[in-house]
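During the second year of the project, the team shifted from modelling isolated chains to modelling whole assemblies. The rationale, set out in the original proposal, was that interfaces cannot be judged from single-chain predictions alone. As a representative example for this report, we include one of the complexes processed in the last quarter. Its constituent sequences, exactly as entered into the pipeline, are reproduced here:
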Amino acid sequence: MNGRAKNRAEQEIEKEVYCGILPVRGDERTSGFIDALLILSGYCIATWSYTQGAYLTGLVGFKQLLITSFAGALLMLMIYQLPVILSARFGIDIWIWLRAVFGVKGVRIVSVIIIIVNFPWYAVCCEMFASSMTNLAAAFGITLPGWTFLGLKLFCVGLGTILAWQGVKTITRTTRILVPLLLAVGALVIFIAFKAVPFSDIWNYQPEITMPHSTAYILAVEANFAFVITLVGGMAGVPRVCKSEKGAFYAGVFGQGLSGSFFVVVGAVMVIAMQCATGKVTEDPTEMLVSLASPVLALASLLLVAFANVGTQAVGSYLYGVTLKSTFSKLSYHVLILILGGYVALLCIWGKIIDYFGSFLTISACIYAPLAALLFVDFFFIRKQKLDFRSAYEIKGHDNYRYTKGYNLIGLILLAIGCMISLLIYNPVTGEIHNKVLFLLTPTGAALIGTGILYLLLYLIPGVRRYVRKDVSINPDTTAFDREKTPPRQSLILFPLILGFCKIITSKAKLKIEKHDMEGFKPPYLVLGTHQSFTDFYVTPIALAPHRANYISELEGFEYFGEWIYRRIGCLGTRKFIYDLALIRNIKKVLDRGDNLVIYPEARYANVGTSSELSMAVAKMVKMYKYPVVVLNMQGNYLQSPIWNLTKRKEVRLHTDMYGALKKEDIEKLSVKEIHDKLEKLLEYDEYAYQRKENIRITYKDRAKGLHKPLYQCPCCGDENHMNSDGAELFCEKCGARWFKDELSDLHLIKGNLKFAKTESLSGSDLERNPAAHNEAMENKLKVYTDEEGRASLHIPDWYEWERKNVIKEIADGKYSFKMKVQIDALPNAKNFIDCGTGELIHEKEGFTLKFMDYRLGKWSEQFFLGKSMSSIHTEYDYRGKGECITLSNLDDTYFLFPVYEEGEEKIFHATKLQFAAEHFYKEGIKK
Amino acid sequence: MDNIDKNLLERIELIEQEKYPVKRMTKKDYIEAAIFTLLCLVLVIGGLFV
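Output from the structure prediction step:
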């Protein structure tokens, strides 16, 4: 780039920094505390201060006026100005941060609303400027023609716009001269007033009011709260160029809370002095100064005060010009300044702004307080002072702040509710107080506090938290889940609600529970349940009623529903397929205190409606604890909502057998193996056998959709990567074979030939046998039968077990290998997932190796998961809409691993195949 | 990618790396601010009885 082009580029960047939205670097800051204080003082000091002062004299005496004007303003400023720290720290305007609160599109609407309701202030300034000039001229015997009034207003707009056009550096230079002069004028005015009337007259001033004094005082406080909070929209334009956070913060607080409030008091003093000296009540400073001082002095004072309006106009245009830049980033700052100037000019031409000013003030105060509250809570508590800048600036590929089509519905709804809070407490038009208790906080204070608290409470709901914090990866909570924490008893208050809810959920499926050998079984006992779907959690409490219980639950459920509620409904958190001694201890605590403890030993939902092998560890645990064991064998839960397609099948009826399996004396008598065999038998199930036995015909039109996930290998051509499903059919996209799933869940080959799989024909009596027992005796042959239409047909579990045998053979032949890129989401606790990016997953006979960026170590590392330590792995076919995955866990983290495919790569990741291999490696491993 | 966009990315990286940091509010500053806020609150409440 040549010198001239480089210079142009640098100028362009500089323009975008100070008059745009580029973050201001630390070394580019231009304002220390004093400069920032002067700019913000210049912004606040305008003849609207006299209007405010005059208004306050109608409510409270002078002493209370001093308190509300200074302490009241400072109180509100000390709270709502705190988020300017983010502007000073990062060099950005609050409207960049507010993209996280309202969404990248939602913030545009809010910023435009803020400007529409705020800019009438500047039209008021222009009115006061023109009024002051006209009255001053009159004081010197010059009567200005009528048209000059509008001309003076537009002159004020124009001059302010010209100053703003130059940017913050020109404004800084101007306010360095203007503001000290204005403060001096203010002091002079106070001196004049106290000279014109006795000090005690002003000091002891009390207004004549018809309302209770306390109400008038609260209204005065409210007026000051509302007065300073109208500055919230532009509060960060100056702090972003400040050299320190403390300087930025206090510049805003004192610029508005001291300088601005000082002029409110000046206005009030003038009104009181005027009233005492002449008996006349006026808020026109010209009239006051001409009456109380000499015209020459008044002229000097008023010229400066009049030009304070110009300074306010200039600073306001700059601040809101930068605000609008964050909304319409493609438009130039200068164009936006002209648009703002044009808006004020139109209001001046309209000429009725003073008449309707009360309405503008009403609407604006309602919006500012909730806006300030949302910003405060979001910055300090929700996002904890961290922002995803790439998403905030809408860098391609970073969409955390897009939410719902660009709108953060939670933020926008909270803003609307916050606006209503103020109006529900007090009607500013009629003066009616609707709620006397909340009125004590003032409507602005109540809206601020109410919106803030509501945001915090909503954030506690896991679904809301996940929605609002899509950017959680920038500062995730990495604290490991507290596994040692003693599980509380299932809440007595929630228990009837849980039962009621479970009954409602299961009522349509006509749940029937049959109890066997339960005589003599009283809590505490261990409950072992089959695990087929989420319906298990609705059936179990009903079966165990009226007794409460605690439940072993995977941590993922804690994250989804929230830890607090999950513990209170009785859940103990753990991770699947790890050695968790804390869990063992907690189970014992639950049983020792007299509560039932429910375990689903399969850990994973049934893939194809058949039981998994029971781990010997369960029998060892039963032997160790010596508490009676009850078994819940549930039927229909998988059929109703299989994991590969969760849509509920309305025809399915639920049935549960509850067995008093082992009494204490049985446990003492039997060996671990005997206990294991007995329990495994009681926990055995085949959902499809149940379906045939009960003749449950499932007519759901998409009853096969998703079935290709567990049935990933085509028995016709042997290909593993091209199975698919839709409607009631399962098909191979490689060889074209198609299977039709009938209403009793059998599969019939309607296209293709069974060339690949060796088949074993089944007779009629075989159709009812237990496939798990049968397969052991057979070689890897696929069990098929011929239906009435002459089609090759089979049962889903047979296909599933055939796949398993193929994997075992592949391993035995030395052909099994797995290595691929994966996306890793770590779950350390119940609060958030942590995006660990992509890594590599390798599976061999010794176990799994995961190579990834370990957030705990802060570097690329390898974790090894020993094969013989995991009897299986957890699989998901479509985890929260993100697709198929497996999980691997250690004590402090669960890693959700999703396949990452390159362009055109075949879909080689099958969670079920990995599960088969892992289970086989485990068995082989423990044999050695 | 134009000049401004490229510069924006550079600035974001500088923020993430905490280069050119400005002086932060310390714990002491927050405590002082809290005390001052409480003082203002006490004055506002007290003003009701003046």
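Confidence is low (pLDDT under 50) at residues 764-770, 772-778 of chain A. The radius of gyration of chain A is 37 Å.
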